[in-house]
Structures are given as C-alpha cells and as structure tokens.
Design goal:
426 residues; alpha/beta; 15-stranded parallel β-sheet
Length: 426
C-alpha cells in the first residue's frame, strides 16, 4: 500500500517490476520511466491520479484487472505487449500519442468517462473486444497498422475523425448509442460491420477509401446489420459475398436494400455500381456446372455489349464491328454465298466462269475487284439488317453456309433491336 503517493519519475527498471495488487491512495507518477524488463501492475488500485507520460517499455507492461479510480494519463512507447485486459477506468483516461509497437490489449476493459486515444499509433494487433465506453471516446488521427478489433464493443459517442485503418477492422456486433464521427477516416481494406446496432445513422459519406487513389474499394460485410442506419456511397465499397455465410435470398435482399438506399440518397455512381454487381450476382451466385456457365456468359454479354445499359452508345460500336466482320467474310465468300446458299438479284459478277476459276492467283484478283466490294456490301446490308431475307430461297442443303447466313441474320436483328431501344429511350 502506498499511502502518501509515489514518484517514480525518470526511473529505470532493469529487472522485472511488479506492483501487482498494490493500493495507491495518492497520485502516482511514472513520467519518463524506463522498463527494460516486464512490468506488472495487475489488479492494482489507484485511488487518485496516475501519470505514465513518456514511458518506454521494452518487454511488455500489464495493467490487467487494474481499477483506476481517478484520472489516468498514459503515454510513451511500448515495444512489446501492453495489456489492459479487464481494467476499469472510472474517470477520464488519456492515451494520446502513444506508440504501441507490440499488441495493445484492452479486452473487456471498462471506460466510465472520457477516453482519449488521439494521435495514437497501433503497429500490431489492437483489440478492444467486449469493452464498454460509457463516455465519449476519441480516436482522432490515430493509426491502426494491423488488425483493429472492436468486436462487441459498446460505444456511447465515438470519433474516428482522420483515423487510418490499413488492414482489417472488426466491428462485429458492436453497439453505438450516440454519434459516430467518421469524417476523414481512411477505411480498411476489409470492414466487418456485421450485426451492428446503432441508435443514430452512421454516415460513411465523408470517410475515405483507397479507391480515391488506387481504385480499390473497401470490402464491407453487412450481414445482420440494419441498413436503414447506414449511409454510404457504394461506388467506394464492395459487399463481402461469402457463400458459406449468406444464402442467395439474404444476399439478394441486401443488394436490393442498398439499391434503394443509393437511389434515395442520390448516390448515382453508387447506384450504378451496385446495380451491375446485383445483376452479375443473380446470374452466377451459388451456381455450378452448366448453370454457372450460362450465367457467366449472360453476364459477359450484358457487360460487353452495353455495360448493363449504362453505356448504350457501345451498341453502335458493336453493330459497326459485327457488320464489318460479316462484310469481310461475305466479300471473300460472295460467289459461293450468292450462287449456292442465298441468291440476291441485281448483283454483279454472277457469271458461271467466275465461279469456276481454278487458278488461285486469278481467283484472288477476281475476289478483290471493286464491283465485288459493292456486291458484298449490298449483300451484307440486306442479310444483316434483315431488309429482304426470304427463307424460301435459302439452300439448306448447304448446311454450313445456310447456318452462317442465319447466324448473320439473327445477330443483325439483335443489333437492330438494341439500336431501336437506344433511339426510343433517348
């Protein structure tokens, strides 16, 4: 028991320092102290203030189960584990500008008043799992280099303003009773936001993601979370689609709710992104074998032809490309197509002699005559755009040629339908 306070300012502890179970009645000062071995304060009770500013702990420090009755100021550099598991902070606590180079463990810790972690750097695991913050907690300008664990944490009001998350942040089943400030917060690569409860709307609008610089989006898991309490621009996020967790209907409901949210809140880019993802999801999610193959083909077709309807001008490009392709083929095969497969009157160069040329050089010269170019262009236009295709005239005994002709005709009709849709909707 320390009845009159203790001043260990600028002390140096070479061997293990143990204050476990101690009872401090007056303020305690460890300002500038250096711990070269493990330091234990487990289950100690601090009745008055405690100052750990500018501490340097090389081998770990433990405050497990400590009861801080009055204010606490902790700072410095912790090169190994810093353990506050089960500690109770009954008054204001300050952890500003600390460097946790080892893991920082605040598991099942209770903060009854304001807790300030501003400008703190967590270089390794930082866990606040199952902790309770009954007052305002501040992580402004803090940085989580590794895994940040806030699973089942209960927050009153919390600020993550300008906080940097780099890898994974876990807020599974977290509860927010007050305001959440995410302005300028750099979100992690993966954000686990499952089963979250909040009394107020959690707004990610002014949070940042790596997509601003690199194009990467924050992967977010929203399983079991009330989406009416969440606001974000989906163009900077991506739903975590874990087939082992989600059933098709559940994930579909999430997509539909996000679509509705993006539309109501005016996030047009986000609406486009989630709409495309939802369409692809419906084509391929939880499918296998031939069913998956058909879905993948359908998704590829919708994405390639006109980007799910968001780039309708692409259909003009594809129509031109396909027409040019068939024109080229028809130009090479024109004598065969017009005589043996499907004859169109009023074209030139239909003499039998032209069709029976055996000399390869003369054939090539014949194929590339100017009049054959016009013949092929005329022929392709009539077939591809279906202006005057008469099935009675098709010679089906030439199966390959007839199949090619019908494929050309069908693709042309599809292009015409898309073109009509674009023009009408415009």
């Amino acid at each position: 028991m320390f009845e009159n306070g203790a001043d260990f300012a600028y002390s140096r502890f070479e061997l293990m320092a143990s204050f476990g179970g101690s009872y401090f009645l007056k303020p305690v000062n460890f300002w500038g102290s250096e711990f070269n071995s493990m330091a234990f304060f487990d289950y100690a009770i601090f009745m008055d203030g405690i100052h750990f500013g500018e501490i340097r702990a090389y081998s770990g420090i433990s405050f497990r189960g400590v009861n801080f009755k009055s204010w606490v100021r902790i700072g410095g550099v912790y090169d190994s584990i810093a353990n506050f598991q089960g500690a109770i902070f009954e008054s204001d606590s300050g952890f500003e500008s600390i460097r946790f180079n080892g893991s920082a463990r605040f598991w099942k810790t209770r903060f009854d008043s304001t807790a300030n972690f501003g400008y703190t750097r967590f270089s390794s695991l930082a866990t606040f799992s199952q902790s309770t913050f009954r007052g305002w907690v501040n992580f402004k300008n803090s940085e989580f280099i590794s895994f940040a664990d806030f699973e089942r944490v209960q927050f009153d009001s919390v600020s993550f303003q300008n906080t940097n998350f780099n890898s994974v942040a876990n807020f599974n089943e977290a509860k927010f009773q007050g305001k959440v400030n995410l302005n300028g917060c750099l979100l992690p690569d993966t954000l686990i936001f499952t089963g979250v409860q909040s009394s107020q709307e959690i707004d990610f609008t002014y949070a940042l993601t790596d997509s601003i610089q690199s194009g990467d989006r924050c992967v977010i898991d929203l399983y079991g979370t009330d989406l009416s309490k969440i606001k974000f621009d989906y163009s900077r996020f991506k739903i975590l689609t874990d087939s082992s967790k989600y059933q098709r209907r559940q994930l579909g409901n999430i997509y539909e709710k996000i679509l509705k949210m993006q539309n109501e809140q005016g996030f047009l880019d986000g609406y486009e992104v989630v709409d495309k993802e939802y369409r692809q999801f419906k084509n391929t999610y939880n499918k296998s074998g031939f069913s998956y193959f058909l879905g993948a083909i359908s998704s590829w077709y919708e994405r390639t032809v006109w980007d799910y309807g968001y780039r309708k001008e692409l259909i003009f490009l594809w129509t031109f490309v396909l027409f040019a392709f068939f024109f080229f083929v028809n130009h090479l095969l024109f004598p065969y197509l017009n005589r043996c497969v499907y004859r169109i009157d009023n074209t030139y160069g239909q003499t039998p002699q032209a069709l029976l040329l055996r000399n390869e050089l003369l054939t090539v010269i014949r194929l590339f005559k100017i009049r054959n170019i016009f013949n092929a262009l005329f022929y392709t236009s009539l077939v591809f755009f279906g202006l005057r295709l008469n099935t009675d005239k098709i010679q089906f005994k030439h199966f390959i040629g007839a199949s090619y002709l019908l494929i050309q005709y069908t693709i042309g009709i599809i292009c015409l339908a898309y073109l009509a849709n674009v023009i009408i909707l415009s």
